[in-house]
Amino acid sequence: MRKLSLISIVLLIVSIPTFAGGLLTNTNQHVLFLRMLARDASTDIDAVYSNPAGLAFLEDGFHLSFNGQSAFQTRTITSTFAPFAGFGNNGTKVYKGEASAPFIPSLFAAYKKGNWAFSGNFAVTGGGGKATFNEGLGSFESQVSMIPKLMFQAGQSLVDGGVLQVNPFAKTNRYSVDSYMRGKQMIFGLQLGATYKITDFLSVFGGLRMNYVSNGYEGHIRNIETNIDDKMVNVNQMLTTYAEQFKQMAAAAEIAGKIEDAQKYKTAAVMASQYAGMTKDKYLDCDQSGWGVTPIIGADFKMGKWNVGVKYEFNTKLNVENKTRVDDTGLFAPGVNTPHDIPSLLTVGVSYEILPVLRASVGYHHFFDTHARMADATNLITGERTGKQNFIDKGTNEYLAGVEWDVCKWAQVSAGMQRTKYGIEDSYQSDMSFAVSSYSFGFGAGFTLAKNLKLNVAYFWTNYEDYTKEWDDYNNISALAGQAIPGKDVFSRTNKVFGIGLDYKF
């Protein structure tokens, strides 16, 4: 019973701050990305983020762009574990987390004069929303699902020890629990930098991005119940009652001079009291914050109809600090820091003007994920706890392509796609934090509303691949149950983004 409570609480609460994963960097900061995707050789205002060295080829003047995006995601884990049948008569359960960010703003600004361009932008560079799991996760429920078996064993031990004549949990085979978690994770980035045109063909960029992390987590575990015959009862209340009864039996035995029986009942009372305390309702309310600086360099080569852009963002060392209001778990002590690095990023883009009204681009992104410090995870082979970056075989690779067509003098249409491929091991993947490879698609249009004013609109969605993880010992249940029980998790996601933006030149 003690293992049950402690493991359950750890799994539920630890899942909250990690569900967003260690591999989440937002590259969709401008609507031009949503409607074309391959923007790494851009020389438009969105180049402030995607290709800052390309700003050297802007028209002279002050350029401003404001963008808003609405993102809607789901994270679905389909978990199969035989003991789940004790709650709903089905060994397979679907846990769905919904995340939404109704409004994600970004601001771009650049001033170009001669060979120099000075630029800045503000955006949500990582995370970007809230997620709610109304029914917890399989990693937590798998521990709770063992309650019927453990209650039966506990009752039998009391019978064997002469404390009880009949096992009150002989027919216990069901359970229920009310678990809930909600979290938000955002990284705000403020970037400043300067671009210089060395020659008519070559320019370079240097700058910094200040990153501020703001996370918030709420969760609870309450009303853990199991059945006594056909009636569901609260485990905490039941064990509290047993503890009081054993105390009374111990007192009566002492009065009767039955010292051995008195000691036996006292021991049972202490055990029941401890277990009752461990199964009582628990709550968490904690914020986390931290900051770090990202150095950025870039170069752009432009010759005729061709343009090549390169950018490198250095690894950002970052920790988040707990600011805890309520923590019944003891896991989020105020002031404790957790690694939260932003991985370094290399982008390369090539664009070509096929016709005066038709342009095509390709791009490549590589995230050096193995160099970034992340929260700990368990090695499934050795059982060792270590940073999740150690369970990444190689960094994330993204391949992008897009095309843009000037339909007329005042309207453009564009479309593109992106392939994202993760190189991760099973030990990285859990229902608390998982990454799945994907294909993303986007399309949209740009409209010239006035001489210096342009409107961009776009729709972007992602098709994710399912990732299946099979366990011989599901969630290491053998540490609790004394035997390995197999199980399986299938991870999946959905993602849809709508965007609208205005570009203006003074």
UniProtKB/TrEMBL annotation:
Tagged with keyword Signal: yes
Family: Belongs to the OmpP1/FadL family.
Compartments, record wording: Cell outer membrane
Membrane topology: Multi-pass membrane protein
UniProt entry keywords in alphabetical sequence: Cell outer membrane, Membrane, Signal, Transmembrane, Transmembrane beta strand
GO molecular function: long-chain fatty acid transporting porin activity
Protein name: Outer membrane protein
Highest classification ranks of the organism: Bacteria, Pseudomonadati, Bacteroidota, Bacteroidia, Bacteroidales
GO cellular component term of the entry, any: cell outer membrane
